[in-house]
């Protein structure tokens, strides 16, 4: 028996864990789990009837989701907290795995399609990432409006280990903000 697809399309806003550093303790998203997480994201997209994805482009959850969305031919919009050259240094190439080529491929495609949003940095990296999370949700609503007269459902996928990190936890903050913004919350486990 096949699952019924939703009657209206869905727009997915997504945030989640980056791939763990080589010496990470505890494990939150080991590199070895990338294929498993990609399969979970793909299943989640199909389950909600995703037509579009809005996220950032960090190594791990973001780049995996963007790749899955490309394979499923979903519209993709990328939000970066600051210029791509700085972002690739701080959020892409500093972890195990070969993420840099995927980053530039996704960012290049988004830019060509008019779907790359680059925010002006504030000088405070933590605040820049918080602003990016807020903007991801705002952009998801904007993408949903483009489907008029259809009214897509809005989903927030959090791709994580479901355990709060000490200090600032951008994924947990994204989930809380999405809940307050009345998005349907979907958890994609990384472990």
Could you explain how this protein is built, in words?
There is one protein chain. This protein has helices at about 35-50, 60-70, 85-90, 100-110, 125-145, 170-180, and strands spanning about 10-15, 50-55, 75-80, 115-120, 155-160, 185-190. By secondary structure, the chain is of the alpha/beta class. It has a single domain (about 10-190), classed as Rossmann fold, CATH 3.40.50. Strands 4-3-2-1-5-6 form a six-stranded parallel beta sheet, sandwiched between helices. The protein is globular and about 50 Å long. The model has no long low-confidence stretch (mean pLDDT about 95).
Low-confidence stretches: none
Oligomer: single chain
Q: How confident overall, as mean pLDDT?
A: 95
Secondary-structure element pattern, one letter each: EHEHEHHEHEHE
**Biggest sheet layout:** 6 strands, parallel
CATH architecture: 3-Layer(aba) Sandwich
Compute the number of helices: 6
Share of residues in strands:
15-25%
